[in-house]
Write a structure and sequence with these properties.
three-stranded antiparallel β-sheet; alpha+beta; 2 domains; 7 strands
Length: about 240
């Protein structure tokens, strides 16, 4: 496995980054199951269902072991910051309409909802839906910023806590901060003093949104993404 990861990072850094992003999303989803089991554990104690406690404890230990292993793989797949930034910049650049030939042929049905479990490489957003309301967005950074604004309006204190919450930050750079000098392409969230980093790939943005929803105890299935175009065929 070590040799494979080293090879991917050197020869196919794009693939290494995409695998890492998917591993992190999987780890976040598993973390959600861990919280559900913890809740069941506490309920078992409250209801004195002591026969369930050993089984739930074993499941929690198993999940911890899986997450530890996934973290190790994610760390091993971490590419140099300069390389990652160039990949993200290229993806953002290629998503610009002016660089896409025969744009109309690449359009997709903007009324079909997609989930945060999908892969969004080479895809362009039309908007998203949260709390039953749809918001238009032309770029992934707009999806991210507007989602932050919706959540901040719902619970400003919780949103602002992301600045100090290490689980809501990147491995090398913060996603949320007050000081704009520490992040790339900062955008201020309306109604707050918080700035967010917008120079991220579509899948990175997807992962951060998934984290935010879990912090807000919002079901991942309640968040929908709508696409405008799919450029995948141009990169095959």
């Amino acid at each position: 496995m070590d040799k494979l990861i080293t090879f991917l990072k050197k020869e196919f850094p794009n693939d290494a980054l995409e695998i890492q992003e998917c591993i992190e999303l999987l780890n976040q989803c598993i973390g959600g199951s861990r919280e559900s089991i913890k809740s069941a554990f506490n309920q078992a104690i409250d209801k004195k269902n002591y026969d369930k406690i050993p089984l739930l404890t074993d499941f929690l230990a198993t999940i911890d072991s899986i997450q530890y292993q996934l973290d190790e793989y994610s760390d091993m797949l971490q590419i140099d910051e300069e390389v990652e930034e160039s990949i993200v910049e290229k993806e953002i650049s290629e998503s610009k309409e002016k660089l896409i030939p025969d744009y109309n042929s690449l359009r997709v049905d903007q009324n079909i909802p997609h989930t945060l479990y999908d892969v969004y490489t080479h895809k362009r957003p039309a908007g998203f839906e949260l709390f039953g309301q749809r918001y238009d967005a032309k770029e992934w950074k707009d999806v991210f910023v507007q989602t932050c604004e919706v959540l901040a309006s719902k619970d400003l204190s919780l949103f602002r806590s992301f600045v100090e919450d290490k689980t809501m930050q990147g491995r090398k750079v913060p996603y949320f901060c007050i000081d704009t000098k520490v992040i790339r392409a900062p955008r201020k969230i309306k109604g707050t003093d918080v700035h967010v980093m917008t120079n991220m790939s579509a899948n990175q943005i997807r992962n951060v949104i998934e984290r935010m929803l879990r912090k807000y105890n919002i079901r991942i299935s309640d968040y929908k993404i709508y696409l405008k175009a799919d450029y995948t065929s141009l990169h095959e």
